[in-house]
Structure formats: C-alpha cells, structure tokens
Specification:
single chain; 164 residues; alpha/beta; Nucleotidyltransferase, domain 5; five-stranded mixed beta sheet; 4 helices
C-alpha cells in the first residue's frame, strides 16, 4: 500500500515525472466565410422586409426620339386581342373590336390579313398598323405581322393598347 505523503512532496514528484511533449497547434491558412454569408443574407432579408416602397411616386418616362405618328387614314389597321384560353388570339380587321372579327383558325386569319393588306395597298394605304392588347403573346403579334408582310412594299408599325 502507498504511504501517505504531504502535499508538498506530491507536487515535487509530479514535476519530476516524465515530460510529455505536445505538438504545437498549426494555424490554418483558410478562412471560413460561411458566417459572413449568413449575416449578409440576414441583412438582405431585413432590408427587403423593412423597406417601404413608394408606389405613389410617379415616374416620368422619356419620350421616343425616333418614333413618329401613323395616320389611321393611310393605314390598314389590324387589332389583336388576347383570349382566355390557349387558342390563337382574336384578330379584327379594323380599329379595335369594331372591325371585322376573323375566325379563330390561324391559317384563315393569315390569308384574310394578307388579302386585306393587299386591298389596302392597292387603294393607297402603304402602312399596316398592328394594334395589340398588352397581354397578347409575342408569337401572335409576330404571326399577324408575318401575314401582313407578305405584301411587298408595305411598312409595318406596332402599337400597344392599354385597356382598363
């Protein structure tokens, strides 16, 4: 059995014991930026949620520099309106829905648009004005424009109708 020793002698024995060498800590050359990214996204979310947009402020848009007006008397007018479904757009020969409504078949629409533009061209109307409602798909307007452009010598003009 071990004998009792006073505490001062225990401290001496511990100091005299074997020396344990520890490896020095190496510093890593890499920087973990994950916390900075987290803080950045938290700040971004905070400012998006806390900001109050001013919807009442009017924005003055600059006028068109190179645009010119088109006379309705010297133009063949084709109006294009969106439909509720996935079918082709509603096409009218004339200004707005007051004109002649064309059937919903795209091939028939193209043929009738080309005929109307030819008739107008020979009567002195050298411009085709395509008025499209704001929500009409671009492919529908392009299809109508391609049908009108089959008549050589006409100028195509596009307009967007803002309907409330």
């Amino acid at each position: 059995m071990a004998q009792w020793q006073p505490p001062s002698e225990l401290a001496d024995q511990e100091e005299e014991g074997p020396v344990v060498l520890r490896r020095p800590m190496r510093e890593s050359g890499e920087l973990d930026i994950t916390p900075m990214i987290d803080i950045t996204f938290l700040l971004l979310i905070f400012f998006l949620v806390a900001s109050v947009p001013d919807y009442q402020k009017a924005v003055r848009l600059p006028g068109a520099r190179h645009g010119t007006g088109v006379s309705e008397q010297t133009s063949v007018i084709v109006s294009v309106f969106r439909t509720g479904g996935k079918g082709p757009a509603e096409v009218y020969l004339g200004d707005g829905r007051a004109g002649e409504r064309l059937p919903n078949d795209p091939k028939v629409q193209d043929r009738k648009i080309t005929q109307a533009v030819e008739k107008g061209f020979y009567s002195g109307k050298k411009t085709v004005l395509i008025k499209a409602e704001r929500d009409v798909r671009h492919r529908e307007v392009s299809r109508v424009a391609a049908a009108a452009a089959r008549v050589e010598g006409v100028s195509l003009c596009l307009a967007v109708m803002e309907i409330d």
